[in-house]
Amino acid sequence: MDAATKSTRAGGSLVLAKRRLGNWMPAKEELAVKFRKRIAQAARERAKRTPMANVVRELADLVQGDTVLRMNLTRAINEAHDVGFELGYGSIDELMAIIDYLVTYAPPFNASVPIATPLNLVLDWPMCMPSGYAVFRDPAFNAQLRRVLSCWCGFLDGPHSRAYLTADEPHGWLSETAREKMGLDQFVCDASQPYWGFESWNAFFTRRLRDGARPVDAPNDASVIVNACEASPYDVSENCQLHDRFWIKSQPYSLREILAGSDMTTVRRLIGGSVYQGYLSAFNYHRWHAPVAGRVREAYNIDGTYYSEIEAEGTDARGLNDSQGYTTAVAARAVIVIECDNEALGVVACVFVGMAEVSSCRIVALPGQRVKKGDEIGFFQYGGSTYCLIFQPGVIRAFEPQPPYRDDVPPLKVNSRLAIANAAQ
């Protein structure tokens, strides 16, 4: 996922200072440019010998057949070039060839220059140009983009996605450098088996922790709420409202939009409550765990956007990371609402947001199911993401993480203490 960018003019050239969260893409723009050019060249070579995938052809036909979409995407590409960004492509057709190449792309490991969300990097600048905002909010465009990402997800579910599931330095995900970076000894794997027992890239990405690797903090104390994802703190907000202007710079949380598929009686119970939000890293665990004990009241997916950013951040703050509050209301996401065993806690809404290349938020905890604190409730298949927990008013006494939140420290471990609740019984 993208992050904050500051741009100024120095001697007539564009100078970029980019800050990215979660190790999904390189911080330095010159490294991003090299990747885009390399991918564009590979895409051109592939196009000479391989027919375009049907889902990508359908995306191209949609854009070319819709006058407004074609105009806006063309203008967004041109606007990015006019500002001075090097994209590696200059037309819709060239962009579609790159997308076609990426649906069979297996990401290599790179500890210092991560490129874990390649399509995000390709779309990095057009999606935050004035004409790009409308493109990446268009429902038909996002619906077809979802099918493209699902096609890529299908590739990552298969054996051909294991090109970099090797111990070879520097790009193997099972290399010594990668194992140390990710703490791979904490996960279920078998070095004696081919590909260490992983059947696909997604099987590796959604790898399971070994028993005892993430103990549940205070499992019998209902006043202790645990972290649902291996994620770094992003924001804590109080007094969330039923409807709020999530598109403005402060990006307040708007419950009716975030919980679009929930019963209104459930949503109203959360008005005035607290929201905790965290973002995930490319190198960490991507399964979700119950933050509290209780019964699953609701569990559903919401289709939405994948690369939509908020204009209110301005052209000096370009990226999905600075739009994380906004994405909770518009991006593809999974919602799980838990009615807590402890009545003093009420309901907790868990929202897992699929940003960028995350085309699948998989729910495993179904309505009516009882969960213990720390039980697995779902997972992200490949990609970077963000999540939030929404609590009723008066429930939270204090959150464990306190501002200012730094992005140069390890993420909070899943099942570790996140908050202390009031009046738990």
Automatic annotation (TrEMBL):
<keyword id="KW-0456">Lyase</keyword>
<protein>
    <submittedName>
        <fullName>Phosphatidylserine decarboxylase</fullName>
    </submittedName>
</protein>
<keyword id="KW-0210">Decarboxylase</keyword>
<feature type="domain" description="L-tryptophan decarboxylase PsiD-like">
    <location>
        <begin position="54"/>
        <end position="182"/>
    </location>
</feature>
<dbReference type="InterPro" id="IPR003817">
    <property type="entry name" value="PS_Dcarbxylase"/>
</dbReference>
<dbReference type="GO" id="GO:0004609">
    <property type="term" value="F:phosphatidylserine decarboxylase activity"/>
</dbReference>
<dbReference type="Pfam" id="PF02666">
    <property type="entry name" value="PS_Dcarbxylase"/>
</dbReference>
<dbReference type="GO" id="GO:0006646">
    <property type="term" value="P:phosphatidylethanolamine biosynthetic process"/>
</dbReference>
<dbReference type="Pfam" id="PF12588">
    <property type="entry name" value="PSDC"/>
</dbReference>
<dbReference type="InterPro" id="IPR022237">
    <property type="entry name" value="PsiD-like"/>
</dbReference>
<keyword id="KW-0670">Pyruvate</keyword>
<keyword id="KW-0865">Zymogen</keyword>
